[in-house]
Amino acid sequence: MSQDPAELDPALLLRELAREKFARRAAEDLLEQKSLQLYQRNLELEREIATRRDTEAALRDQAAALVRSNSDLEQFAYVASHDLQAPLRTISGFSQLLVRRNAALLDAESQEFLRFIDDGTKRLHTLIQDLLAFSRVSRSTLTPAAVKLQDVVTAVCDQLRLSLQAASAVVDAAGLPEVLADNTQMSLLFQNLIDNAVKFRRKDVAPQVRIRGEREDSHWHLVVEDNGIGIPAEHAERVFTIFQRLHRETEYAGTGIGLPICKKIVERRGGTIEAAAAVGHPGTAFHIRFPVLPPPQ
Ligand SMILES: Nc1ncnc2c1ncn2[C@@H]1O[C@H](COP(=O)(O)OP(=O)(O)OP(=O)(O)O)[C@@H](O)[C@H]1O
Ligand SMILES: [Mg+2]
Asked: Which residues pair with residue 221 across a beta bridge?
């Protein structure tokens, strides 16, 4: 078979060789460029990993600091509320003694001043008791067990029977689930929420409290809804802070510890609590969500 004469042409062969060389160099350049880019991207990634590691360490430190400061605060609340009781007892004891022994010698104004002292000490006593109740919620040992929420609500309504009857309140709770939780804390949670639902009722409107609960994937979602005065959206978070109230003591009695206690209970169970507007009518709906399985103690 005869060969193509062009293939044997040395000039052509040389040109072909040069073209190949050029193409190889271009490919090598490209490879070098890509390697450089890869190297730079690697460096960036390493930097990103280092930054992420630093951020994670900072977050861990912050979380540890938060736990420390939380337990410091709880310790403080406990010690302060304990230690404040003794001087308070002295003040109220001696002012009562003063009234009893010298009532005849005191003019009307002085007697009024002593009444103010008495009112003030009573209020302080309530605040201290509430602070103690709050710190007890965080300090108590939890005993998670299967708790039938339907039974919890029935028992709470029984405890609140007198105030429910006085307000002609109706509590409608049906088909509530059985959850793994601490029975005492669940009772305290519903007691505070039902008590609020009845207390913050609208004038001339009998309170209606609807409680329902269902499972949503790995969470329980409980709702306690009333037809009362409602909570303005801008105050929906504030009401969960200790001693924060939206009304004067003379309008609605209380110190502002009920919802912070509810929040503490739900958070210890690994969940959240939110206040939202009731749907379709005036009132408030408290939404509680917590995982089906309790967090490790
Ligand atoms: N169901 C509700 N409807 C309308 N407002 C509410 C309701 N629940 C709570 N609030 C508002 O949130 C505030 C805080 O509630 P929280 O239960 O902590 O305190 P309180 O009921 O006033 O006092 P305490 O619970 O200590 O007796 C209340 O003072 C009230 O202004
Ligand atoms: Mg309350």
From this structure: 214, 289
